[in-house]
Amino acid sequence: MLCILCGSKEEYDRGICKDCIADKLSLSVNGTLDLTECPKCGSMKVGNKWYADNQQKVLAKKVNQMIGLNDPSFEKYVDPGDVMISHDGKNTFVRISLKKPDFSDIVQDVNIPTRRLRNSCLTCNKVTGSYYEAILQIRTLNSEYNSLVQYVKDEAVHIMRGLNRKDPESFISTVAKVPEGLDIYLGKRADGNRLAKHILDNYLSTMKVSKTLAGVKDGAKFYRFTYGVRLASLDRGSVISLNGSDYLVLGTGAAGLDVINTRNEKRTKISKSEFFSSDVRILEKNPRKSTFIVVSKEAGELQLMDKENYKMITMKGDTSQEEVELFNFDGKYYLPDRA
């Protein structure tokens, strides 16, 4: 049976051929596309939501929803690369594909009226307004700003840069250097918790969390949280007093310390919980160390000569090295590394 419209081609559906079906397809545009661009970060507001990434994909979905089609048996498809906003921001040009089984894709061009505005996004308003939901306070045992505080701060900044690329709401509002350490003001409470956990998992440290009422937000009480992190900034060879005993520090980690008891020279471990729950004093902050040449070793005893002043000493221990590093505390030498 031939097409009832053109009379020249075979009928495909309800007496009409494919070409005539395609010719009868009609597109319409429903409304005006409203867009807002942030001049500071380049985010785009489509509808009621801001988008920092995948803007073309979001636009493609939005314009597809705005374009009407008179035949619901066809599927509309807009490729993100086929959406272009005019330079004056008054029009959006769209190339749309109409798809249906047994049909070749039908491509049409559509012009959508557009209103483009420029306003700062909510996140940039928060950043410029010094908005924050959490404070990460980084402190040391002796409440001083040192290289470890700086290193941990650099790590936090690096982590936040990665989070900000995924979520613009994750940002550092302010970094304040204070005499006793550092305060990092964060745009999201969850980031304060995330950074504090990173520090606890990687450094000998402890944390206290507190909150203060900051106001009312969306009808509910709004709290700001402070994550107070205290670092045990102890160099290898420093000496501490803990619960009445003195210890020379061999190394620190997230789980605790490796130490030598200065009284009996026994090597032991101090857990994180024991360390932070005890009365700790730093007796020797800057390690006193010297390099010694191994002159002889026999039956667990070493004869050593100071490389600088040629002083000879004898001590218990063993090593396979020709030179060793010793720490000195209260007139006594300690060998940190075993054979």
Tell me what you see in this structure.
The protein starts with 17 loop residues before the first helix and ends in a 5-residue tail after the last strand. A 6-stranded mixed sheet has the order 4-3-2-8-7-6, covered by helices on one side. The chain has a 5-stranded mixed sheet with strand order 10-11-9-13-12. The protein is elongated. It folds into 4 domains: 24-122, Immunoglobulin-like (Sandwich); 130-231; 234-287, Roll (SH3 type barrels), CATH 2.30.30; 288-339. The protein is built from 6 helices and 23 strands. It has 339 residues and is an alpha+beta fold.
List the helices and strands and how they pair.
Layout: H1 18-23, E1 27-29, E2 33-37, E3 44-46, E4 49-51, H2 55-66, E5 67-69, E6 75-85, E7 91-99, E8 106-118, H3 122-128, E9 134-140, H4 147-166, E10 172-178, E11 181-186, H5 189-202, E12 205-217, E13 220-231, E14 239-242, E15 245-253, E16 256-261, E17 267-271, H6 272-277, E18 280-284, E19 289-298, E20 301-306, E21 312-316, E22 323-329, E23 332-334
Parallel strand pairs: 2-8, 9-13
Antiparallel strand pairs: 1-5, 2-3, 3-4, 6-7, 7-8, 9-11, 10-11, 12-13, 14-15, 14-18, 15-16, 16-17, 19-20, 19-22, 20-21, 22-23
User: In which order are the strands of the major sheet placed?
Assistant: 4-3-2-8-7-6
The assigned structural class equals alpha+beta
Rg calc: 35 Å
Report the mean per-residue pLDDT as an integer.
91
> Distance between the terminal alpha carbons, to the nearest Å?
97 Å
